[in-house]
Amino acid sequence: xNFLDTLKTRANEIERxxxxxxxxxxxxxxxxxxxxxxxxxxxxxxxxxxQLVSAGEDVDQDDLAKFGGLGGHATVRHxxxxxxxxxxxxxxTLFQLKxxxxxxxxxxxxxxxxxxxxxxxxxxTSCLVAIxxxxxxxxxxxxxxxxQRTAPTD
Length: 154
What we know:
6 strands, 4 helices, 154 residues, alpha+beta
């Protein structure tokens, strides 16, 4: 594909590409997660980019083929959002992060490891992810694929 060639395409010929099908996948952390903040610092974020490496039996194979298969380009973001203005909410998210790292990804380390160590050790670990579709709150016809939950692979 050449982008300059696509400039000759009429807008009415462009359709929304299919979403990754709903179902369970094995996903792998491919790089160190990225941290940031949103809403003027009200939320600190930690984003894991998970590459979908295999599809479970509950994934429609025809829909997966229409999506283009997994072939290294199927990634989903797993975001942890820490509310900097609510300690109880912050602590809940912190616990969810610990559970994700130790119980779902089974990152090498222990309860004595720092979060920084566990996060750095998460690269190349894997877990199961359940993908669902969510409608855009401003446009019900627009859907997004997102992680509903994670679980260990065994």
